[in-house]
Amino acid sequence: MRAISSALPLALLATTLGLAADPPRAAGEILAEAETTAAAQHKTIFLMFHASWCGWCHRLDQFIETPDIKPIIQKYFVPTWLTIQEREEKAALNTPGAGNVWDRVSGKPAGLPFFAFLDEKGEPIVSSLQPDGSNIGYPNEPQEIDWFMVMLKKAAPAMSPNESETLARQLRTKKTK
Fold it and tell me: Distances in Å between the alpha carbon of 161 and those of 117, 149, 168, 172?
């Protein structure tokens, strides 16, 4: 049996299975841990805001976990998730303080998933907000994929052209209509 991905927050898993769960950890604690890891490993934080109801959020998680993609993501980034905008019946899954982090790194984008790349001090490098202010969410359309590739160049300048092309190819061939 395959181990459950670390991409799935334990609170979400427990709720899905109908089990009682401890309250989610605070956003500040999650980010502090990511900053420590990023500093120690000389990586960038890949911060993703998501919710259990968000199909595009699940697609982003699946993309990150793809066997060709996961090693590249792990080489350059510390993937970090904050749960936000859960519906009333699952409001307990929301990460306490995630709204404040969202405001700090985004300026209130429209829709989920929203993600940003942060430096090891938690300062934004670039976000999924395109220059026109629209959120790419899961990069599915050509202009969204193009912006994602721009984001990667800013967030991981040492990424090789081959690694970058692997990411782009995966996005371009797995489009969802």
Answer: 19, 11, 10, 16
Q: Which of 40, 6, 25, 64 is nearest to 120 (CA)?
A: 40
How many CA atoms, within 13 angstroms, populate the side-chain half-sphere of residue 83? 25
Q: Where are the domains of the chain?
A: 10-173
pLDDT band at 33 (very low <50, low <70, confident <90, very high): very high
Burial grade of 58 (CB within 10 A; 0-12, 13-18, 19 or more): middle
Tokens of residue 154, six digits: 């800013």
124-173 pLDDT per residue, tens: 999 999 999 999 999 999 999 999 999 999 999 999 999 999 999 999 99
Quote the CA–CA distance of 105 and 70 in Å, as a whole number. 24
Q: Residue 98 belongs to what H/E stretch? A: helix 98-106
Task: Tell me what the mean pLDDT of segment 70-91 comes to.
Answer: 97
The length of the chain is 177
- 46 close to 141: Cβ distance less than 8 angstroms: no
Tokens of 126: 């670039």
Q: State the pTM of this model.
A: 0.86
Select the CATH number that applies to the domain covering 10-173 from these four: 3.50.30.20, 3.40.30.10, 3.90.79.10, 3.40.250.10: 3.40.30.10
